[in-house]
Amino acid sequence: MDFKKEFLKYFQYWPWFLASLIISIGAAFYYIKTVPSTYQTSALILIDKKQEDKNKIITISSDQKDKEDNLEDEIRLITSNDFLLKVVKSTNLNVRYFEKVDKLKGKYVNAVPFILNPTVSVDSLPLISYDVKINSEGFTLTDPNTDISYSFSGYEGKQTIDGLPFTIQLSDKAKKNPSFYFENEYMVSLEPTDIALKNLKSSLIVSSDEKSKGTIELNHIGTSPVRSRQILSDIIVLLDKNIVINKQKLYINTVNYLNERIKNFNKEKDSIQSSKEKFLQKNDIVAMDNYIVEKTSDRSLKNESSMLNEKQISLTNFAINDVRNSSATSTLGTDYKLDAPTVNQMLINYNSRLLESELVLQRAGKNNPAYTALMTQLKVQKQEILNTLEGYLNFLKQTNRINKTEQSVANSKAKSIPTKDKILGNINSNLQLKEETYVALLQKREEAVLNGAIIESNLKTLNSPETNYSAIFPQPKSFMIGAFLFGFLIPFGIFYINFRLDTKIHNEEDIQSVVPNVPILGFIPKISDDEKLDNTANSRSLIAEATRTLCSNITYLLPRNKENKGSVILFTSSIQGEGKSFCAFHNAITISNLNKKVLLIGVDLRNPQLHEYFNIDRNVLGLTNYLSNKSDDWKEFLQKDTNFSNNLDVLFSGEIPPNPTQLLTNSNFESLIEEARNLYDYIILDTAPVQMVSDTLNFSYLADVTAFVLKYDYSEKNTLANINSFIKKEQLKNIGIIINGVNMKTAHGYGYGRNYSYQYQEAKVKKPWYKKILSK
């Protein structure tokens, strides 16, 4: 990208940029001076969450505390409509007072010399402003929208006026010297509560500091630092009151809750104690430890007694069998270890009698009646022993059955000890838990009562409301820089869009990008009407210099003429108005001034223009007369007496015919050109536009060079595509492009400018100022 060319492309419009910058910067300066400055007022408060935890009944974990360290609830409270509505009413934001410092700028003042007292609800106040003046009779209020004035008599504010929802009175300070305020102008603005609330919410910024836990930053943006500080102070005071009120509610609810829970726990504790008492009575338990020892010992005794009884049964059975199986002369055992003293004594007596019988047997023999009587007695005695043993055995069996029953009962009671111990343990645990909770609730109630007696807010003001007197809006430096950029970018954007949407031809690059193989022959500058015909042999005008350069470039395109015949140069264009006749005229003059014989022919039979440059009547005889009648000699129609050059002959188009195409396609025109080649060095043809009619294409083959004229800032770029089409179809040959009407003042950066022209100027000698005066 050629930055210099791009810069010059925009720089040529520097007056527009300058005007835009002046307007933009002037408007910004006016705005800064007329709009009241906006300031930011800030305050920082701390809400100690740890202090709240001391009054809580349930202690939460540290992780939950970290989550509750955020202050979203407090921020929601501060920004809520109900909360801010109280601030609006406490600060009286429905009424705003201004003192007019000058005609353009209003300045808010905290204390004006009068007070406005609404006579209706502030919620129904209208959105309106009044200009206020104080005079010797009272107050004069004017509605700036309708210019309706209202007059209040006196300064006491006792008068009411229909249509005004307020009364007005002087402040106590102003009543001492009302005349001091006669020359001042004031303004009072009213607005309903909903609008005042909306304005307050839009100007209030509440945020928490993530780095500093528990801190809230309050910011208010407004034109009055005093009122902003008052608003933030009221917010802090109101928030502090809300915290205390909420704590009082929490205290009351906590105490009520604790009382209710204590009452319920007392009932539950009594119920558990009653259940324990019934359980002990039902199970005959005095003390669980003694009950366990008693039932365990009883089971052991029952088991031991049962075992001894079973042993006696076994021994008794053995004794019965042993007695039955013993012979009549054998002694019975006395070591059966029976717990039956009678049986043991009977066995001893039986053995003693048996010894007596043996003594009798030894003395008297078996037949001795004494021996026989003893044996009979021993038999009876042995039977008695058996009967006694069987009776004892029956007794033992009956006792065994009783022991088994008692043993089963003792075992059952012993096995039920863990269940009863568990039940009693649960009852005791539940009772202990209830008792501990009951004691804790009593303790918490005492703590709550003590805390309720000394309730205080956990809000602390770290930074009182302070105003940063560096205005945040409008900031003069940033505003002026923005205005400068805005003033620069507006025309830049307009010109940029204009350049992007521009379809006109302005420079060689526009042409070469479409038809790169077609040479640029030169350019014709845009000149005034006075300079239009200044193209003599000695002329140093821009048009003369440009056409000389153009003629030189056309010469390079001409093929070598070995037959020494004249060259035919055809001038054409895409559409009408691109200046082909103008270029053909000046090129004919320039070549003729080089001592070349030139014939200029007006071949545009539909809209001829050459006659205007020679001040000749449009209907003078010319080409159409010859073409329509070949018997005429075309030389008779030539105009030789021109004021521009003696070497220039002109054949005008003549009268406009009804059939120009038929005239140009007959052989007359070709014959004319062939004959003119032998008489002139150059034949210049001013033809019709090729995009509008086909006249020129019918004889374009006769030309040695085709000069295609495009006009600066006029010709469309899409016409260049037609040139490629003409070349491809060989409808035009040996084409070169001429750019006409180049504006020398605005062509910088487009490939033209002063570097393309050389203009001879005589050296001017500056005269002293006194000689200039004398020469006059």
Automatic annotation (TrEMBL):
> Which intervals hold domain Polysaccharide chain length determinant N-terminal?
14-90
Q: Which UniProt keywords apply?
A: ATP-binding, Cell membrane, Membrane, Nucleotide-binding, Transmembrane, Transmembrane helix
Q: Which GO terms describe its molecular function?
A: ATP binding; protein tyrosine kinase activity
Transmembrane stretches in the record are 12-32, 479-499
Which locations, inside or outside the cell, does it occupy? Cell membrane
Q: Which InterPro entries match?
A: Bact_polysacc_biosynth/exp, LPS_length_determ_N, P-loop_NTPase, Wzc-like_C
Q: Which Gene Ontology cellular component annotation is one that this UniProt entry carries?
A: plasma membrane
Primary residence: membrane
**Topology versus the membrane:** Multi-pass membrane protein
Quote the protein name from its UniProt record.
Answer: Polysaccharide chain length determinant N-terminal domain-containing protein
Q: Which organism is it from?
A: Flavobacterium alvei
